[in-house]
Fold:
Amino acid sequence: MSQYTAVHGEKVSLLRVLGPGHVWALGVGIVLVGEYMGWNFAVGKGGALAALIACWAAGMLYTCVAMIDSEVTSTVAAAGGQYAQAKHIVGPLMAFNVGLFLVFAYTMLEAANAITLGYLVQTVGGMAGFADTHDKPFIVLTIMFLAFLNYRGVYATLTFNLVLTAIAFVAILILFASVRPWTDEVLKPHELLNGLPYGWLGVLAAMHFGMWYYLGIEGTTQAAEEVRSPSRALPLGTMTGIITLLIAATMTWYICVGLMPWEYLGQAVTPLFDAARLTGSMPLMILLFIGTIFSTLASANGCINDASRAWFSMGRDRYLPQVFGAVHPKYRTPFRSIVFLVPVALIFAYFAPLDQVITFSILSGLLEYTFMAFNVLMFRKMWPLGTIRRGYVHPFHPLPAVVLLILCSMTYFAVFLGYGTQLLAMMVFYIVASLWFAFHRYKFVKRGDQFSMPWPRPVGH
Amino acid sequence: MAKTIYRPPVQSKLGQLIDSLFLLVLVLASLFVPVYFGLAGGGKTTLENTAKTWEGLGQNATMQAQWEKLGYTPETAHELIVSRFDYSFSVPALAITAFVVIAYFVFVFRWSKKEYKDVISERFDR
Structure:
């Protein structure tokens, strides 16, 4: 999350140095881990073919998200991404909720990354003859180590994360080439595919985890203040990111369904590593082990960075206790926010099953996308085209917002199928938190400071 | 019309601590407790009348070979293979869930609109 930072009492803005390639790396970097774990639960919910259809339908959902978000973020050139959008367009309570959506989508993704890493180490340890290897210490170590790096400000830079992501992406390409998909020597999709075990209801249900292929790609627009040409770089970087993920997801799907029975694939924790195991090739196993570790580390690192900065922004705006708005005097990091979120990530990573942790992350994302659809409708109404300078104007308005709302509604139903209690638990959390903010916290908020853009008064207000 | 700027109260350190603890407790009570006590997660059922053999579990020769490469026997794979999501649901349960989601958004947008008036008023009327 981009910020203004006070240095020696002066307000210093971020440098506009990023191009479309960096925007692409930001998005793909945090999301690529979705190819290494989690997507395959869509296979469990509807079968292999349902997971592929859900992958493409979720791709359409995220295309709408990218179109909408590129316009709003390239225009609301204030720190905080969707959180800042909500402050300027909807109001403080919505902004508080959007801040929480971001924090919990990222914190739960961080916990999911730690679970995957721990499980992989345990599996490989067992294969190497260390049968007593346990995943829990590695889960704790991963979260504590990355939190410490973020606390010290020695967190992986965009370039470092880009290298890890590039290696993880190349690992998928090498695996795809190695299984020779143009022959049926290794992959046996005709003998392993089994149609739609739950019928078309399963296709709908698979939308739940279909979102995992792309969840977090909207983070690209959080670099709005740092890109040289937002009108070009944001839509281009985000759309190429989605296309990259769509290609990687389809390749991942084809490799895995050609190697594993769907009943196994639908519950696997590390499907790509398992695919490498099934090829019987030790170099591929090592490569996919490295790819999984790198993708989970890069993603978890980005998640701690983004979640703590969202929490910090809310503390700075007094939506949360002001103590969270503090910057470390030496390391210049939001250290209290980083520390506060550690136990949350630890508890879920240590005690909760992977599919449920992922579901919490997906639900927070889903609530955020629902907000985005309404947000862009309000944005166009309050500041019609021509009244303010927009970095980018997305085409076919309001079609993308309407399609997004329809796809979000379908996904709520998909989560309800099988995970209805969790959906309600998440709603209880956001409802109680909203009441707490509306009737308690809001009195600490400085009203006029919530609107910082040099725009005219919104129409209707 | 010039409006008076709202001056928020300064929250004490104890108040900030209580608010921070409240948030932690809220996360644990609403999100973690249902998970920990097994109230959340996939509503599952199992296929019946499945023998613990590859044939009885409906696995062809290719599937059988892949299961074995992954280290499974029909006995250890049985639970994974017969597990199914239970997609049966009651219409009232769906209606309640839909109501909760819609009511949440209605409340948040309407209340935000009320707060937004304060923001716009202070930003543009002073």
Summary: The CA atoms of residues 93 and 437 of chain A lie 7 Å apart. The beta strands of chain A are 5-7, 10-12. Chain A touches chain B through 85 residues (CB under 8 Å).
